[in-house]
Structure prediction request, 106 residues.
Amino acid sequence: MKSGSILFVIILIAMMFLAMTSAAPTAAECKEERRLAVSACRNVLTGKLPSSACCQRARVSHTECICPAITPKVAALVDVNRFVKLIEGCGRRVPRHYKCGSITTP
Prediction:
């Protein structure tokens, strides 16, 4: 095996180990993620495009923290197609037919 291949395998194993050992965010961490998301993405609520800070939040926020906050009341205010386009425009893939709180993506 070439040294480049060995290095690749070592990196791959290390990444798999990190993925398996990373703990889910705590309730306090989720609360902070939601606060940061609301703060960074406030301009989107007024119809503007997301800022770079908002896009960064969209890429790094845990869905298990954000989705529970999407209540039926919040979902009624959201245009799902616009929501998906904005998130994907920020560089985060949104799966089809994904259930996030009270919203299911097209």
Q: What stands out?
A: The helical segments are 3-21, 27-40, 52-60, 63-66, 72-75, 80-89.
